[in-house]
Amino acid sequence: MRLRLLVLALGTFALGTGSFVFAGLLEGVARDLSVSVGAAGNLVTVFAVTYAVSSPVLVTLAGGVAPRRILVAAMAVFALANAAAVFAPTFGLLLACRVLAAFGAAVFTPTALAVAAGLAPPEGRGRAISFITGGLTVSFVLGIPLGSIIGTYAGWRMTFVMVAALGVVAMVGIRSLLPPVEAQTVVSLRERIDALKQPAVVAALCLTTLGLMGGFVVFTYVSPLLAEITGFGGAGVSGLLFLFGVAALFGNGLGGYGADHIGYAPLMATILALLALSLLGFSLLVALAGTALVLPATIAALAVWGVAGFALNPLQQYRVAQLAPRTRNIALSLNASAIYLGQGAGAGLGALALGHGSLATLGWTGALCAVCALVVLLFTTKARRRPETVPERG
Length: 394
Hints:
Residues 4-384 form the Major facilitator superfamily (MFS) profile domain. Keywords: Cell membrane, Membrane, Transmembrane, Transmembrane helix. InterPro entries: MFS (IPR011701), MFS_dom (IPR020846), MFS_Efflux_Transporters (IPR050189), MFS_trans_sf (IPR036259). The chain crosses the membrane at residues 39-63, 70-94, 100-119, 131-154, 160-178, 199-223, 229-250, 262-287, 293-312, 332-353, 359-379. This protein is an all-alpha fold. It has a single domain, classed as MFS general substrate transporter like domains (Growth Hormone, Chain: A), CATH 1.20.1250.20. The protein is 81% helix and 0% strand. It starts with a helix and ends in a 14-residue tail after the last helix.
């Protein structure tokens, strides 16, 4: 089973690199295509919102098709879109390439998560899901820093060449190594909408959106923010992003372990509190720029943010699946949409914060989103209910 999960994680690694590599490229894209950094951030917003809106529809249309065929086709679309982005002469055409890439990702990720959850035994589903989301996390450790370095020294278009190549490798790997998997039951769009009638599921999706929103207010513009705080150039910022990715890798593992062994509510409350504090720290760090404390404090803030922010994702994936065990695939698809909706909304909110404030505004704006997520958690957790030790198996 591990080999099967590995090829799926290879796909999410390619998607994660292509989706988030703009964090280190925005300034170069803005300069070359004559737009502001805030406008360039719309490349993240458009991708994420397209994913969030299209995923339930596209996954429904693909229902009944063999999952391996869906995964290969979705990755082919993603790779083609990134290859086309290499030659995009205008910002508008680059946005169109991002929309096409989002269509591929919108089908691939929920399908891969559903396949992974179906392959694993009930007691190992949390770890199986975290293994797939781990591909996204590893993209922060390797893909995004490498893409940032390539963008710094060879231009941002060459980064798209790298992403397209990763997509092709993932597509070939899935086609060659993933055995045929039984087609999933066709689920209508109406059934997906009906899943939103469950208050607990809606609350969990809101929490996912707010948590990711807070992180992406800052992450979308993390390259100019880190440069402002530390004075580092492209290579130095890439090094800091690598450290962030290492912390994220630990966080992803913590989320998977916590899903299987730790009570949901206390762990999620801790995660959100740490996320809010770490994001707020970036507003404070701007004031410390140029002092001896700024570099170790920045590394500490990145580490806490990486662990907390990436523990949230697999924990929420598992939580949503367990809240709707009979419609697990629907729930995972909706949660994937919530993740990308949060990313897109966070990038858009970050652009507003930059337009009406400064880089220092990003930290406390992101922290406020995390606090709102914590409020949702507290209001939807029954105070008199005994904290869960092991989630109910679906």
